[in-house]
Amino acid sequence: MSESLSFKWYSFFSPNRWKIISSSLVVLISLSGLYVRFQSFNHRDLTPDEYYHLNYMVDKSFWDVFKDMPKREFSSYITGHSYVTYPFFKLFGFNKWGLVIPRIIANILGFLFLYGVCQKFFKTTLGYLVTFILVSFNQNLIWHSFEIRPYAFLPPLALAVFYFMDMMIAQNRQMSRLKRYALGLFFIFVIWFHPDGVLMILFSGLFLWFAQEKQQRSFPAFIYLIKYFSVIFLITMPLWLISVFGPHLAPYEINVFQYIPNPMYDLKGFLRGVIGNLISNKSLKFLFAGLFLGFLLPHKDYFKQVGFFLILVVLPLEVILAVHIWNNHWFIQRFFVWIIPFFAIFLGWSFDVMAQLVLTKVKKI
């Protein structure tokens, strides 16, 4: 009897049972995350910024709304959330629950894509727990998830880009023509939806290419991807360049570092402001330990994990910061809200590695 009960408790977190356990917990946590989003949205009215974006749709055709974009939007014509909102506004007017329908769908899809991305890296239940708790209860994500503005769509969109980019790079030339065309249309949609779509594609592609095994990074495969995305960028860049560098609503002359300190003078305050917004839940601050674990714990995918953090968290933050300094516009959390899920995945990955190491030690006892 004692032999059969010899501390098999660790099998709860072991890889051979992670599918059922992880899936069940992920569903429960995701439903909790959706619940708090509904509650947050239910207890607030539409904000002046949301009314600003809705008012110019009143008594206007879609074509008129499109033509007016350079006068109303910083991103000019690359303002996909307005095009998604337009038919719902025509149906429901200023009724917030009608307007939020596409955001609800996007958030559900976001949780599904988050699970798909986590499957690529995690081997234990703990990694899923950490990542989904961070995403579900991040206060910035809770606020922006149902907001009638572009930021509601960006985190799900970034995760979808990573998921499909992984599919594109892994299958490469073996992918069917129909799937290639479908993914091409998706990437075109992303680039035309929001200016940051280009960053999502570039950084996801950069990481996933170098994360492959050396034998998979063949020159013909690289040339194929270059040709594939060259066509996509040739199609999308004219409108993207006109929207970003052509006539558009000019940013206000304001203090870039009004809300997050200038790193040139207060690096500690800057890091605290950025990381605080990436976690954005005081009760979950202890999970920040995953940042140190990610750099300290040795494992076979160590450089891949560090690369994930540098390419999908640090580099996009630096580019976004540089753009906002250039435009004299606030550097605040809503502009890097789509990076938050990747930071959560990195922390979850760190705890997943820790769990694997602990399980390995326990099994040897």
What does this entry look like structurally?
With 365 residues, the protein is mainly alpha-helical. It is built from 16 helices and no strands. It has helices at 18-42, 48-55, 62-72, 80-92, 96-99, 101-121, 125-136, 139-145, 154-171, 177-193, 197-210, 219-245, 267-279, 289-296, 302-326, 340-364. The longest helix is centred in the middle third of the chain and has 27 residues, at 219-245. It is globular, with a radius of gyration of 22 Å. The relative contact order is 0.13. The model is unreliable at 1-10 (pLDDT under 50).
Which features characterize this protein?
365 residues, mainly alpha, 16 helices, globular, disordered N terminus
In short:
By secondary structure, the protein is an all-alpha fold. It has helices at residues 18-42, 48-55, 62-72, 80-92, 96-99, 101-121, 125-136, 139-145, 154-171, 177-193, 197-210, 219-245, 267-279, 289-296, 302-326, 340-364.
Strand content: under 5%
Low-confidence region ranges:
1-10
**What would you call the structural class?**
mainly alpha
Largest sheet: none
**Total beta-strand segments:** 0
Helix % is: 55-70%
Please give the radius of gyration in angstroms.
22 Å
Number of helices in the DSSP assignment = 16
Mean pLDDT: 89
Bulk shape: globular
Distance between the termini: 18 Å
Order of helices and strands: HHHHHHHHHHHHHHHH
